[in-house]
Amino acid sequence: MKIAVAKGDGIGPEIMEAVLKIFTANNVPLEYEFVDMGKWVFDKGFSNGMTPEAKQTIESLGALFKGPMETPKGKGVKSVNVTARKTWNTYANKRVFQTLHGVDTVFSKAGINIDITVVRENIEDTYGGIEHMLTHDVALSRRFITRPGSMQLIRYAFEMAKKKNARRITCGHKANIMKITDGLFLECFHEVAKDYPELKADDIIVDDLCMKLVTRPDTFDVVVLTNLQGDIVSDLCAGLVGGLGFAPSANIGDHICIFEAVHGTAPDIAGKNIANPTALLLSGISMLQHVGLIENAAIIENALLYTLESGVHTGDFGDKKIPSVNTTQFAEAIINNFGKQPKTNAKVVIPNKPGTPAPFKLAQNSMMISRESTDEKIVGVDMFIESEEQPLQIAKKCERHAGVKFKLVSISNRGTQVWPTGSVYTNLVNQYNARFESLDGDPLNQQDVIGLYVSLSGNFKICSFELLNMWGDKKAYSLAQGQ
Amino acid sequence: MKIAVAKGDGIGPEIMEAVLKIFTANNVPLEYEFVDMGKWVFDKGFSNGMTPEAKQTIESLGALFKGPMETPKGKGVKSVNVTARKTWNTYANKRVFQTLHGVDTVFSKAGINIDITVVRENIEDTYGGIEHMLTHDVALSRRFITRPGSMQLIRYAFEMAKKKNARRITCGHKANIMKITDGLFLECFHEVAKDYPELKADDIIVDDLCMKLVTRPDTFDVVVLTNLQGDIVSDLCAGLVGGLGFAPSANIGDHICIFEAVHGTAPDIAGKNIANPTALLLSGISMLQHVGLIENAAIIENALLYTLESGVHTGDFGDKKIPSVNTTQFAEAIINNFGKQPKTNAKVVIPNKPGTPAPFKLAQNSMMISRESTDEKIVGVDMFIESEEQPLQIAKKCERHAGVKFKLVSISNRGTQVWPTGSVYTNLVNQYNARFESLDGDPLNQQDVIGLYVSLSGNFKICSFELLNMWGDKKAYSLAQGQ
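ok -> structure tokens follow
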């Protein structure tokens, strides 16, 4: 089986060399095809940080093992890491955080054992990067959560949790505030949970989760979250076990998977053969597990744990009384410990079950549709208008434009209702949401909305609008605070 | 000076009684007017959880001291806590997290001393609660950050940091991903920082911040963040010092301030006189400081710290070998320790400087405008359309509607470009963003946008649109991933 390998920038090449040396010494049945990605590829003029050949190779092999990469700053180019994750739809980011004996933290010193797997949605949320200035004072980021995207992620998380015999799978969310977006994500979680009665599934508000992660991290096992919250929780968990240098990362898609170290490229120590390859090695182990090389994965991971337990360390961590080793020596120590069992967290060695790589070629993009759109109607529209006037003046003008189809039901500013009722203490910015609903409750069509828009545009700059839909008898929109 | 007091639900009345007893014993020169807020007010039919008399009293006094409150679930009512914060524009949430000797955590055991003040924006972000389902599969939350809202918050944070002689003030953000919204917040931070050269101001990506908070919390002092990130970081910090039972909260506005305990109402132990009043007492101390009663605040805080150091504790924390005391006894122990100095973190006792309450009545809502909107033009529009077709088919239809004013420049799905270039591996959902720009670079007007909308609506359901503005020569919108 062949995989694509991108060595990365800075310390990337030397830690990749160390990891591949360990793989080779363990007779890992993989071939490597090296591809061109990273800072020097940007510098050669490829604006997405990879050559067309690299892209083609990765797409044909389906697996990419990559070192840390740098994206040039101030050139307006997007991160090569993010581009790779999005373009190839690696919808799940899986990160395993476990206590490594030999890597001291306040938690390890307190005898608290951590073994948390964070599964983070990797495509949606504000990471879509869809942002607009609506007025000179008001910036908007469109945070979207989709049902098929959430289902895809959550199904993966449950399958993974089942395979690892997880004690618990927990959904972190903020559905008490983001009732529609995170509400949808949470609904998907509980829907999928029904298919896995053997797993203990529960949910927790994300702020409470973070408080509990720093007080009782040992109570969590698999945690699944949306993109930004997952990003924050992942790095928090990395801190619990010693930092990014000790945490692997896998980006899982249906066709292409990316295994990578997410720490920096450490240009200051690049080429000195002193960097710590642990995170990249753990990512590589995660890759071996993913492609079914579970025997190799277990032997190498046990050797790593044994090596760390025995006090061997690079210069960035470990007992200062024991002299540190360099990158090559660290790799050799692991190789010499193949077959040894660590005292804690030893992995069970099970024979390899390599999958047959399924060659595929997609003819077109997959359209993910999860819910039929029956029985829907438009019942109103939110018009986001720029104005520096007081709510009452705006209401008067809006009512004039409502015509025979609409009535003005509410005006809000930064989500708080300021008309027909509100408080004089609510400070305003120069962008209002004027909510219009169908005058007689009859369904509206796009022509009605256009009519209102044409009329309103005589008085206001309309920055943006959102339709108010009903799905059956359920409102598909939120009320303003105070409405 | 008179303040409004709401005792709260569950354990609220008994911990409030304990705190006011401590205040009275210390001759705090405050009068209390008790107001009706909380679950039992919802139950009486007041849908925002407070009586009109309560609202009037609080607005006339300008300060509210409140116990924990419950919002009835499943009745569609919004949280009384959130309503209060928004209606009265308490734009800054200030929370102080300090190591309390006597309250054991893994950090206190490791000898790491924590003293972090989190200042969180309290109105904006996805907490505006402006959410819509765009299709049956796609949910949207509008995350907005405003310039005047950010400036108001950040100015408060710097003033507060200056008063407390902070070693450092740090802005936590995700401006590497949310370049426009968090970019605006970060820009405001660095702009305000210029006026405070005596303070060491820096910024950090929020995920990195959370990793560092669990490894080196002692390196932070004042941290300022947007709403959701601030919510998460606040609770993380609460965990570092022992939980919500040991963390005060103050909501600061220009006219009205709210000081409250943010832990739960603990109905299971309500009325038993065993609850821990520490968080509410610390919130009360924060209130005393805010109204200039800094001598009372310091004496009471020192007595609290001394009491905790001496091993006195309620049943929920502390050394199990020392019998716990009840709520009343805990308050009495603090009263008996007035004038004593704790070994660590003792507060300097400075004479009171009570402010004169400035009676005010707002005639109208304040419109916050921070930037003049000169030299702006509309250069295009993003049309968010519902479709299950492939990108190429959509592009063909869209181009047909572009007319003589617009050209179709890009189609993206979940923020990733899928036309004119893209990857077949990008999975799609049934909502696309079709980006149209001015054909000849000339500025557009609303009539042009209406024309395009009318034409497109013949082929598609338009869920939503956003104008593409230029401010001077700067694009006021983001590019799609891959665009």
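Chain A touches chain B through 136 residues (CB under 8 Å).
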